[in-house]
Amino acid sequence: MSEKHIVVIPGDGIGEEITTAAIEVMKAAAEKCNIKFTFEKMYAGGAAIDKYGVPLPDETVEACKKANGVLLGAVGGPKWDNVKPELRAERAILGLRKALGLYANLRPIKIFSALTSKSPLKEELVSDVDILILRELTGGIYFGPKQEAHIVDGVEQATDLEIYTRPEIERIVKMAFNIAKGRSNKVTSVDKSNVLATARMWRRIADEIVVDYPEVTLEHMYADNCAMQLVLQPKQFDVIVTSNLFGDILSDEAAVITGSIGLLPSASLGDGGIGLYEPIHGSAPDIKGRGIANPIGTILSGALLFRHSLDCEMAASMIEEAVEDVLLDGYRTRDIYGQGMTRVSTEEMASRIIDGLR
Ligand code: NAD
Q: Under DSSP, is residue 247 helix (H, G, I), strand (E, B) or coil?
């Protein structure tokens, strides 16, 4: 039996409820795969501001560096909205990504067959959609030099500079090609090479590297066209790889076609195998402590942790299949409830998923 150490950061709002549910499911899946877990709970976000005066205490960073994987609920809430910018709860996530060297954000966009009617798109367009968006996370325009608004020759102006280096592009496109090998071997690289120099370099480097992956088919698409294609014909995509800015926008667009933000997981990965796994939604302070939060996004983040940090595909698929089955059996938390379905609490949803693990 192998031993793995997981740091759990519940964070704020519904974080405690959804991470508790996810840990129960992960423990049950690990048992079936002969993995023994140790869990260590740490603080970040508003909870850490209250306890330590900072959103990301050094203790949390050190614990994460020693772990095999980190599971995060969500951070932030109205209580901490008016603190100084450097103390904002959301800083915890940026700080963790930086400290752990996480340069790729993975967002699987999968439509569950039981929930196609929840999508704002027509059912026939979204059934069987299964896209993986890989967003570069630490470079590009968000991190380039900026000049806040100032006056030049009597006119107010501001500047943001997009910089990408060859190593930054190489590592993210290589990750995309490696992930595509375990899927359907197709990668769409999204850029604006018709207008941006960084994008022309990105495209050239992707073309050079794909030669080492003969089984992978690489296509290029402009970001504006990709935004249209995601709603016109989402099924055409498998793996999408793109820059920080385009990935931010396109991954949120793709998320809404699934119909519920409570269901979607994410992973932030680097080279060391360690990753940060969290649902894509926020801390939902409006429903905190009522037992009605949907834990599926966090439970599926746990599945990604098995896949990408523990190299245990069996447990990952087992959890994903159990979630699919429970939804097909009609169990629903309040956010995805519909007539004729069985309404369950956060805890009951986790129990049903555990019962479905096989
Ligand atoms: P939110 O995602 O928390 O909530 C939006 C709506 O979706 C709310 O009505 C909420 O009840 C519902 N919802 C979200 N997750 C749900 C779940 N699992 N089950 C059922 N319903 C769910 O977004 P918001 O209200 O804009 O932000 C609330 C706080 O979360 C803010 O402080 C924001 O800064 C923070 N936030 C954190 C993260 C993160 O930690 N990664 C991401 C986004 C927002």
A: helix
Q: Report the nearest atom of ligand 1 relative to the CA of 297.
A: 18
Q: What share of the chain is helix, strand, coil (3-state, %, to 5)?
A: 45, 20, 30
* Residues in CB range of 110: below 8 A, 6 or more apart: 129, 130, 131, 258
Reported confidence tier of residue 274, pLDDT bands at 50, 70, 90: confident
Q: Which of 91, 93, 280, 281 is the best mutation target for the ligand 1 pocket, counting ligand atoms within 8 Å of the beta carbon and taking the most? A: 281
| pTM confidence score | 0.93
Q: Which of 58, 207, 224, 271 is catalytic?
A: 224
Whether 88 shows a pLDDT value over 90: the answer reads: no
The model's pLDDT over 155-170, given as tens digits with 9 standing for 90+, comes to 999 999 999 999 999 9
Strand pairing of 155-160 and 146-152? antiparallel
Please write the tens of the pLDDT for every residue from 34-49. 899 999 999 999 999 9
The CA distance from 242 to 233, in Å, is: 19
What's the one-letter identity of residue 92? A
Is the CB of 57 within 6 Å of ligand 1?
A: no
Q: CA-to-CA distance for 242 and 324, rounded, in angstroms? A: 28
With a 6 Å cutoff on the Cβ, whether 335 touches ligand 1 is yes
Task: Give the residue, by CA position, lying nearest to ligand 1 atom 44.
Answer: 282
pLDDT score at 89:
85
Closest residue CA from atom 34 of ligand 1: 76
Instruction: Report the nearest-CA residue for atom 38 of ligand 1.
Output: 282
CA–CA dist 242, 248 (Å, integer): 9
